[in-house]
Write a structure and sequence with these properties.
4 helices
Length: about 325
């Protein structure tokens, strides 16, 4: 059911009521210029991202918009996403959302509450996000819980401050038993965006220590940059007393760009259990070597050489496994 009306002082009200969602938008606004207002809200804090959003929404110039609105919505189910997009997502309790925007004052604020959502079998609960933007600065906080509490799920929190095309981030996470925990800081700067070259940005990940499956890892400062539809990772290094992992290179559709992963005595069983904690994997051992990937975003080709000490497969011990990987571009294998 769609209801459109106006009340005193030309305040427009639009209400949508359905099995999927109940939503109302109240205020002084023009639907045709709302995309421009969203782009402006982003651009007031992050001009480059405002340009990106305006381009994607085909908003054109938005500096003369004068929209002022308040939105409130209850999302009751997400069946439409699975039916239309074949995307496995469901909620057990309604999602609640508030959003307010005033073009003339260059302010916006929002609140999102997600009691529980299951995405591809993964549970996210107690999710909350708050956003407040004014005078060219935006503060965002995100909290939630990932996984099931009886399977050592992880509580997480993120705080972001954005201003003048810069985003500072602080992140923390901890599982019930403490087997997975850590803190991290990032600093991102956006330089430009255009349809030909994509987004040009640079992100620094600060030095930190994290706990992974009860093992402490030290991470050195590293960089992640994007430009010309390419992602470049520089000097990512994670190590502890006995294990070492290093990543460096460019991920793109171009065959001349190579991403390389080097490792020393990486515990395969523990690493795989990070991806699926509740699943017992049949592969065990300590892996050392390297793997290179070219044209990762189009026709990926793999090259590498590695060995696995104390290799076990399905409870069967095989000792030392040595392998060389050479990609056949014609056979694609």
């Amino acid at each position: 059911e769609l209801l459109i009306g106006e009340c005193a002082k030309n305040i427009r009200i639009i209400s949508v009521n359905s099995d999927f969602m109940n939503m109302s938008i109240t205020g002084h606004y023009n639907l045709s210029t709302l995309p421009g207002s969203l782009a402006k809200a982003c651009g007031d804090v992050l001009p480059t991202i405002g340009n990106l959003v305006g381009t994607k929404l085909k908003a054109g110039k938005y500096n003369r918009n004068s929209n002022s609105l308040a939105l409130e919505a209850h999302i009751n189910n997400l069946d439409i996403l699975e039916k239309v997009f074949n995307y496995p997502v469901s909620i057990s309790k309604p999602v609640y959302m508030q959003f307010a925007l005033v073009d003339k004052d260059s302010t916006c604020s929002g609140y999102l509450s997600v009691p529980e959502v299951i995405i591809s079998g993964k549970r996210l609960s107690e999710g909350n996000m708050t956003l407040n933007s004014a005078e060219g600065t935006c503060y965002t906080e995100i909290t939630g819980y990932y996984g099931d509490r009886d399977e050592d799920g992880i509580a997480f929190k993120a705080n972001l401050m954005a201003f003048m095309d810069i985003v500072r981030g602080k992140y923390s996470w901890k599982s019930e038993t403490g087997q997975m925990s850590g803190d991290a800081k990032t600093l991102s700067q956006f330089f430009r965006y255009d349809t030909r070259n994509g987004l040009n940005s640079l992100t620094f990940i600060d030095t930190t220590s994290i706990m992974v499956n009860g093992t402490m890892w030290n991470l050195s400062i590293s960089r992640l940059s994007t430009d010309k539809h390419k992602i470049t990772i520089s000097d990512f290094c994670a190590k502890n007393d006995s294990q070492y992992l290093y990543a460096d290179g460019t991920v793109s559709a171009d065959s001349i760009d190579i991403f390389k992963l080097s490792m020393t005595r990486i515990n395969i069983g523990r690493t795989l259990s990070v991806l699926k904690p509740a699943k017992k994997f049949g592969i065990q051992g300590l892996a050392s070597g390297y793997l290179s990937i070219s044209s990762a975003l189009s026709k990926p080709a793999f090259y590498g050489s590695f060995q696995i000490e104390d290799f076990r497969f399905m409870d069967s011990y095989h000792g030392l496994l040595t392998a060389d990987c050479r990609w056949n571009q014609q056979a694609r294998q």
